[in-house]
Protein 1
Amino acid sequence: MVDAAKKILVLYAHPSQERSEINKPLFRATQQQEHVTAVDLYAEYPTFRINIDKEQQRLRDHDVIVFMFPLYWYSTPAILKEWQDLVLEYNFAYGANGNALEGKTFLCAISAGGSETAYQANGYNHFTLRELLHPLEQTASLTGMTYLAPFALFCARSAFDENRVHSHIEDWLRILSALSNNTLDIALGKSLEKLNENLNILIRD
């Protein structure tokens, strides 16, 4: 018996899409994938009036939850924080009766302007990207989700000129397909600094 494909929810947040050379094409490619629901939060909620019931139902209906965003001041863009504050309610996402997210998989697809060497203990930003994402990792833990390492692109400002965008998108589509088909090594994905490393090992044929 073949396992049913896992359904993936991608929540995209970019407050300045007209200047996006990475996240916008990444999101557009994501929208075309089977078994993926891709939501542009800024387009759907331009006044930040988030429909909590709608968003909670989306979470219930999907197996994998993805936050896709550019790293802004070491955190998520504002609407994604607002989404978390409103949607992940007590007795829905956590608390005595809050088990709606248990067993789901969570990860972030992120672009960062700095180099990877800047995101080290002895680098300009003093912390690794994974360390800076600890609040989201703890959110996953509190809500019973499996947290995977981020899928990340560093030096995002130069990626287009350096012809790195296409390969980045292709790698992302491979990950989406593996997540849907249950061919991604979850244990390895949990342990990495970023999912981009060793895709041929991370994804089982």
Protein 2
Amino acid sequence: MTTFDANGEWTIRLLDAADADAYQAIRVAAAIHDPASIHADAAEIAALDSEAIQRQISPGDAQRVLGAFIAGELVGVAALRRNVLARTRHRATVQGVFTRPECRGRGVARGLMQAVLDEAAKLPGLASLELAVHAENAPAKALYQAFGFRRVGLIPGAVMLDGRCLDEVQMQRPLVFSSAAAAPAGVPGDDDYALVEATPDVDTYRRLRAESGLSPKTEEAARRGLAGTLFAVLLRHGGETVGMGRLIGDGGGFYQVVDIAVLPAHQGRGLGKRIMAAIRGHIDRELPVSAYISLIADGDARHLYAQFGFEPTAPRSVGMALFKR
């Protein structure tokens, strides 16, 4: 299996024993650059002998390790490791997703995640994918949400780094698709619309904003902004994405609801309310007590937001904004 990116910039394939040295080197780099996301430190990884590394990457029924290459150099990795016990072999863990910092922003991580799903679809009886992600790693969480992973738990103090206890978010994705190209399962409503917990891609995001009457965003602004998504939902109808909503913030004290958008042809059907209900559910489940959640209400939209507990801040405080032109 070899996957090519649309521009021919990178390729993705299964790693084997011959890739042991390159894999060990990139795992050491991961431990150095993203220490909060790697349980082993760089010295522990570097100390492993070649046979141990080969065992970690050799493809088999219980594991598939994928590598992304640019000009023959290994620049990104992701592993799929299946449970081997009879009662849990329907589950597999996605581990070690890492792209070298100088190669980020080229779609490598997304390509690796799609390749992981492709491999998972080939394993008979596999029903669930799971992963753990550093709780403060917003870009990684947004990536996993875009591929249908949902938060299912939190392990406080899962990693000890330089004397600090760091939390890990547990995420899970049911394998309900019948082929690698199928979209993540949606949450059906009483009609033909479905909500999916996922972050829009750049093109979809810009289209929805423009066509629903929100201010346009440049491609660069959209790319940077979407990487910081904490939670997002997409509204789909007949294979088309017709609405969205996002929650952004610092992950602790302050958050903002943004990008509540429904295409004009689908407005007036309570779909904005459905999007807000999903966001409010995430707020209730995941945000800490004392969190401050704000939004900007345009016109009559304030009536929608009031249904979900949002209140005007005036005259106590007045909203102010700066729009860079």
Protein 3
Amino acid sequence: MTAARPRDAGGTLDPAWWTEDPERWDLLRFEAAHDAAGRPLDRWSKDRQDILEALVLAPGPIDHDFARFLLEQEIRFHRHCWGCSHTIEIAALLLAEHRRPGDVWHLWEAILASFDTWGCLPHQLLLACGGTEHTISYVTGSDHGQRDNLLGYLHKLQAVTGDDVAALMARRRRHFTDILRELDAVPERDDDR
């Protein structure tokens, strides 16, 4: 890949650059971002975080295929690390905003990626396609290998409407936007003092 990765005035990778050409997504692919010993490359980790943060700051929703790709990479990353980065929640949120029934499987996979993702991701995102009743109906009609596991879990969730999930997604987007804007407002620290 020879194209330069343009940054906006704040030094953040320009989200439009990534969505112009899906071949550029390979730069964010988890498998391509490790050295021979399997350690993550710092540049990949920084680019990944920068692009997700830039996307959550921009009005959504973003390109559906790109959102799904980003969540897949976050799932791969979180299967190989300890803890739960805010980046997987941002990726899940960006995909859930499309409110497509089939995305429930990607969101379920993200929740199941690790013990930590189970604990940190809002499980109500599973209901993004229209609330509890609509999601259960969709999953029931599916022949997906995880159907019975997901149905068992969905039946344990409190009944939630599509409006409830939309409100949750708006709150979570606002949460990340507020935090990122606050961080941008913090002056750089002078380590020479």
Protein 4
Amino acid sequence: MKNYFILKNLCRKMYLAGAGDFWFEESEISKGKSLRYRLLCFILFAFYISMTVLEIIGVFFGDMPNDEKSDCTTFAVSHIIVLCKMLSVILNRKRVKELNKKLVEICKDHEDEHRVAENYRIMKINAVAYAVFVYGTFVLFIFEGIRKMMTGSHFITIVTYWPFYEDNSSIAVTFRFITTGVLGVMMVPMICIDSFALVTLIMYKYKFITLRYYLEGLREQFDRNNYAGNEEYATDQLHSGLVEGIVMHSNLIRLSKDIDRSVGGVLALQVCLSSGSVVSLMLQLALSKDITLGAQLKIILFAVALYFLLALFLCNAGEITYQASLLSDSIFYCGWHASSMRRDLRRLVLFSCAAAQRPIVMKAFNMLHLTYGTFIQVVRGTYSVFALIYAQNESTAE
């Protein structure tokens, strides 16, 4: 039941971050419906949306230097997509609860303690590394804002339409610090929801690994039981075990659609976020004339964080396809050919192998394939767009 506690603990963190209760057991985390909690969530998201709206207005109507205009554009695009990612999960709360229940129940009787511990270690490393990248970037933005303030300008991290660039009043300075705090708080539910999508993919991958080891164990069990006078018992055990494995495989195949409906929006929007925002960041880095080392570091780390999360999503999704492709051999070599019911088992094995040979490709919005190749295409496409815009800008400048 290790997966039970992993998911429950993650859902508890999502609840504390203000995203809501996603656990399938009622009143286990939220302890009933709380009006105070709903009011707090409403206030938090009102702050997030208001800040994003001010960024959007700043992009179109703001009068500010080029570097702040670039930051305003990058943050506006990023925060629009981040809000859409969070809302795509929050508005699908019922489906997410059903997904959590299925992730806990499927293959739970055959999970190995050591493999689940390894699974948890990988989840923890990936989630912590992503959080470190995100808050490392946030700290660099704060340092850059402090540096600007120390050199005679004003403190700035989030660039919004108001306060105006020339406004250095106490109200304006206070508002800039408040938006920085809002950004820091906004990152908590964002990281929790991204981590949930990542944990879902990793846990799904390990379900296929668990099933593969279970099917390989059927052959070992059959060989131990298949001796003179015990052939019928060995065959019955193989038959019942194979049927159970096929049922688990069918449930896992159906689970891919549940994952797409629940967190597919997060995965698809991350592709848009990583490609669009990174182009803006690269142009800002390439076209800025007097950019400081701190500003360069914050831009580079921001871009790395976006690509790092995308790589985690797409590579784990690609690993699901690979692990699922190994099941056909495990089914075929389960020992059916040596049993006394090999003619009856042959048809069952053939249908199961055929089903396992259909590649399970994770998709976002049922159209975008989440594979290793998609990650490479996104990286190449992003660089191509950057190179095109940069070349056009250089030719215009000349």
